[in-house]
Amino acid sequence: MKRTLALGGVAAGLLASAAIAAPAHADSVPAVNLANTNLAAQQVAAFWYGQAKANLINATPYTVETTVPTKHVSTGGASADTKAGVVGSSGDQKAATGSLKNVNLPKTTGKVFFIGADHKPHWCSATSVQSQYKNLVATAGHCVYDTKSNATTLDKWVFIPGYYEGKTPWGIYVGKTAYTHYDYSVYEDGDRDYAFVTVYNGVLPTEGGTSAGKYESQTYRTKWQAEAALKKLQADKTTVASKLKVEEVKELSRFGKETAISVADFQNYNKGANLTGNGPWAPFTSVKTDSIKPSEYKFWNKDSYVSQDGTTLYYRVPKPGKRNEFDFFKRTFSAKILTTYKVVGFKFAIGLKDVGTLGSNVGGQGLAYNQKIGTGIFEFGYPSGSHPDGNYAFSGKTQKWAYGKTFKASAPSLKAEELVGIKSSFTGEGSIGSAWLYRYSNAKRLGYLNGVTIAVSDTDGNNRIDTNVSPYFDGETLGVYKAAAANWSGKIV
């Protein structure tokens, strides 16, 4: 559902299908920070590079709102709001056709990785787009905005062009700011399910690679305080501390409560001391000694032993001037213990080197808007997962392509009445965010971005995915693109 946009807001009602939508202005394009400081960006990169890239390797496709019942629209549907146009790519190109048997895959395509609403690592497809500062990525809106838990943006967001099984050939590009259409960020309008994200310069690990150091918080008097600190750390995008937990800490203190402790704990507080002797003992620790009958002493071949429950030390002392005669004792231990709490875990440290802007390394696709329905489109992405019949056609490990001509479509379950579709067997898991390229040049590997996959569908009911859908890119899409493209990102190291 497309709505008119006013400066800083949204018009009161829906447009009639014949009305012309107003272009999106920069101040009506929501912009949300993903990592707004160099430190935050460094630590996001460290999160993905750390632990031998385990978070990258173990990430799974994002499956929110992927497979939907799609209805073809024969009348109405998507339409241009202004004159058709293009924004140039990083190189001039001639059009390719769908009859090509061998398609040279674009360097611009890759995967975006992030932490989903389930707090686990996931990925979508995405592409580099040409911009003034060579720092722009395009993908589906719901691969940036967390529509499932309404937590605004997905956490620890990065783009990796050419990603393959842990390899980052051109580095990791940490997302800085995400831009989307007002109707998507406010209403989750499927007709506007796209996002443009500015990214910092790419980084690769230095020869020193990654390391992990211990993290330990201040001491908290109550467990509640420690748990609140833990939640704050977990929600803070400027930290990549991981495997965090609240740990109970028992400390000796004059303010502590007199508590019975084990023999082992007493020995820890009195390192090197002979526990059968008479001290001196560490401050705030004490012993209680009682004589026992010889019949209570169990191990006559030992001068001392600890009870099975670990709380009592039994020992014997030779009687003065008496051979093979002993006095027998048992000793229990206590200490003034103050129970406190800390947040402990590990924090990644990583050496990073700058590898330049995204566009300088892989180029950038142009942007096409208000194009005619029936236009030939190449789709590039990382489809994965199964068809409804259970057949796994794609692994998601390697980039794939499809070709088709656009047609009008709608998907009411996504609040989308003005989509475009193409015939494609890309399955939904992993293909979300795939780039739709108009006039793709097989020689230059460049074209004009004219859509992003937001959902897939089995339209003929044979349990096989046959259709992919995208928002129709129009003048308002151009407005969101321009708002994003005008912003510089810079280096993080």
UniProtKB/TrEMBL annotation:
Keyword Flavoprotein recorded: no
The keyword Signal appears for this protein: yes
Top-rank taxon, per record: Bacteria
Descriptive protein name: Peptidase
Signal peptide: 1-26
Keywords: Signal
InterPro entries according to UniProt: Peptidase_S1_PA (IPR009003), Peptidase_S1_PA_chymotrypsin (IPR043504)
Transmembrane segments: none
